[in-house]
Design a protein that fits this description.
By secondary structure, the chain is of the alpha/beta class. The chain contains 16 helices and 13 strands.
């Protein structure tokens, strides 16, 4: 008897290799034939090796490109007709619309899409209208829609983008959960921590704020850099030790560029350390004290899970996803989005109040352990697949 065939699709390979790491191999190990489809590149080949599955390259863009998107739909339709899967499961907005239309045309019986964020929330005018239309169209062609946070589910229902009976959530949220063995402060060699601090000119006594993610406006990086610059001024005026801000991630100047002033401050401020994109973020959490993640919109941010698992308290914006991981004054602090003044006050509070900091830190890992273990998410997804196949 042939194994049920599942095709998992994302726009770019990094979404498979990072955001869904290990999940595809787990599904395959439970008697499924799993194929991953994403844009071509070396990362796609690594996924084939690491997840022990077949991969197929399909050029897709992350921008609004109607002609290229039409070509992607036709090419994916041909792939799906040839592969004849039982399930197509897509992630990310562009892969979602391309996959759901193509799989509907190809007659795939179970068409699933996971929503991990809504770019339309920070869009205006015609672009917002277009993105709303694309979301509705994606959900229309899907047989089932999932969100990776409860807040995101509520937003979609408020916008009336899909019928309530058609949408749900896996486990407690998150697309992949968190591997608490991999992300553990107990698995880091102190010698490596000291070496990395030395390499980045971070002293033992330095208090380090860290941001991990794309260096774009939607992630609140303009607000973060502005708040941190003001924090440095306050510390200087009070003769306090100067903190550091560690930025871990790439710019996206062609999609969501930062303000010129922000880029200049990052370049010129000696207390801001920009290391770019790294494959392994764990060492950078290990040399930091607090995650600061002032994003404007999220689905369910993995970086906040990872920081908590590594024992870091977080300052995050009070938006869906973030406020489902962070409990205010328990394992972190919530701030309103787009308020660098309040972000500044909150950063200064944790820098200056060691009792509060230690209290938040002591709860960080345990709260992640209780609710978001990776195996729980994987098992829930597997049961969902099995139930859909029986149905």
């Amino acid at each position: 008897m042939n194994k049920p065939k599942i095709v998992r699709i994302t726009t770019v390979p990094i979404s498979l290799s990072v955001l869904l790491k290990g999940q595809l191999r787990f599904i395959k190990s439970n008697n499924f034939d799993v194929i991953a489809i994403s844009s071509p590149g070396d990362d796609l080949k690594k996924i084939e090796e690491n997840e022990k599955i077949r991969v197929i390259a399909l050029p897709m863009t992350r921008k609004i490109t109607p002609f290229q998107d039409f070509v992607s739909v036709i090419n994916l339709y041909k792939i799906l007709k040839n592969e004849n899967p039982l399930i197509v499961h897509s992630h990310t907005p562009k892969a979602g619309i391309v996959s759901m239309i193509s799989s509907w045309l190809a007659g795939v019986p179970i068409r699933l899409h996971t929503v991990a964020g809504l770019p339309l929330l920070e869009s205006k005018g015609f672009k917002r209208f277009l993105l709303l239309y694309v979301e509705r169209l994606t959900y229309f062609f899907a047989t089932r829609v999932y969100t990776n946070s409860k807040g995101l589910l509520n937003i979609i229902l408020e916008f009336k983008l899909v019928k309530p009976s058609k949408i749900g959530i896996i486990a407690n949220g998150s697309s992949n959960g968190i591997d608490l063995l991999e992300f553990s402060p107990f698995n880091i060699d102190p010698k490596n921590i000291n070496n990395l601090k030395s390499k980045l000119s971070i002293k033992v006594q330095d208090f380090v704020f860290v941001f991990v993610g794309r260096l774009v406006r939607d992630k609140g990086v303009d607000d973060l850099v502005l708040a941190f610059s003001s924090l440095i001024d306050i510390c200087k005026s009070r003769s306090m030790p100067l903190p550091k801000l560690l930025l871990v991630g790439n710019y996206e100047l062609d999609i969501d560029p930062l303000l010129i002033e922000t880029l200049q401050e990052i370049k010129c401020n000696n207390n801001i350390i920009n290391v770019g994109f790294v494959d392994n973020v764990k060492p950078y959490f290990s040399i930091s004290n607090v995650l600061v993640f002032p994003s404007y919109r999220e689905g369910f941010p993995n970086v906040v899970l990872q920081a908590g698992a590594m024992g870091l308290p977080s300052i995050v914006t009070d938006i869906n996803g973030c406020n489902e991981i962070i409990k205010n004054n328990v394992n972190g602090l919530l701030v309103p989005p787009k308020r660098p003044d309040i972000l500044l006050d909150t950063m200064f509070l944790l820098l200056n109040d060691s009792l509060l900091y230690q209290s938040l830190k002591s709860n960080s890992r345990s709260l992640i352990l209780e609710r978001f273990q990776q195996q729980t998410v994987w098992d829930s997804l597997l049961e969902e697949y099995k139930s859909l196949i029986k149905f």
